[in-house]
Amino acid sequence: xxxxxxxxxxxxxxxxxxxxxxxxxxxxxxxxxxxxxxxxxxxxxxxxxxxxxxxxxxxxxxxxxxxxxxxxxxxxxxxxxxxxxxxxxxxxxxxxxxxxxxxxxxxxxxxxxxxxxxxxxxxxxxxxxxxxxxxxxxxxxxxxxxxxxxxxxxxxxxxxxxxxxxxxxxxxxxxxxxxxxxxxxxxxxxxxxxxxxxxxxxxxxxxxxxxxxxxxxxxxxxxxxxxxxxxxxxxxxxxxxxxxxxxxxxxxxxxxxxxxxxxxxxxxxxxxxxxxxxxxxxxxxxxxxxxxxxxxxxxxxxxxxxxxxxxxxxxxxxxxxxxxxxxxxxxxxxxxxxxxxxxxxxxxxxxxxxxxxxxxxxxxxxxxxxxxxxxxxxxxxxxxxxxxxxxxxxxxxxxxxxxxx
Length: 405
Ligand SMILES: [Zn+2]
Prior knowledge:
- The chain is built from 12 helices and 18 strands.
- The strands form 4 sheets. Strands 3, 4, 5, 6, 7, 8, 16, 17 and 18 form a 9-stranded mixed beta sheet that branches. Strands 9, 11, 12, 14 and 15 form a 5-stranded antiparallel beta sheet that branches. The chain has a two-stranded antiparallel ribbon with strand order 1-2.
- Helix 3 links the parallel strand 5 and strand 6.
- It is of the alpha+beta class.
- The structure holds zinc ion.
- Zinc ion binds next to loops.
- Zinc ion (ZN) binds next to loops.
């Protein structure tokens, strides 16, 4: 197994250059199809050409760099669009690590590695449109109908794809054998543990409810406490009851969030007649996620009955967990142990990524590097340069192992 002639310093220089396109302070403003995003994708096409790869820009604005030769090859990448004001590494790290890997692989003649930057992962138009259309999870018509906060449709915005390079058909998913998405962790697990690498074994799923307690609105001065049917008192009891109900079901990585509370009529002198709360749960285990979902509604019914209220539970956003390909995970784990001995872990991704869409069509896996302080979607987002380089070495080791398998 010949090591690939990767150059971590060249990757870091490219990352620094990309950071300058749309830079705002220490952050980056490069939303999908903004002038900065187009400029970044044009620059990426130039690097793809210079590396001896075939650039392909599809109608969604996805940018591929494909090596010459026949047969399905390895695809490595992520996205180069950002949040309205995001950090310099979210997405960019995966694209530039993929570029460096593809460039090194091309220079050494093997294995064949392609790079991709998917479009609108950050959801200017709703979320992961580029990889969703490419993988067939969403039709182009459905993507086109999506609009941003200013009412601009994806259909209108994606005309700018032609400013990146002449638009052509993307290579289909079956032109590739597997997908690896390197990414910053965007959470604190690796940094807190002093570890350099996370090998992602699943992307968590989501289940959610809107729980609405209904009592009776009444005068806040004349209604005696024992006669009240106060929806906020019920909601207040629900929060600790939910934590207690979930405790026996969850593991250390399960999360739940009561993120939005609405009170009606929301007036200081009225006993609240209605109180709603959103409950969102995320976990990588489908059975545990379903158990958490059921428990959250059962708990609300028990609290309501006890508090003399009625309750309604309306299901919301639901996404199944996405397991990563076991063989790729094993390959990345071996490479992580070789390049960062005992300084890595296997872990789920708590955030959504393009790999969720791609995993429906190709064996897929993700590699995490630490986020300092767990900070992301923020101009302060950062990763130690040594960790960015270690991630590239793990990737190169895994790619060589993949070719030799
Ligand atoms: Zn990202």
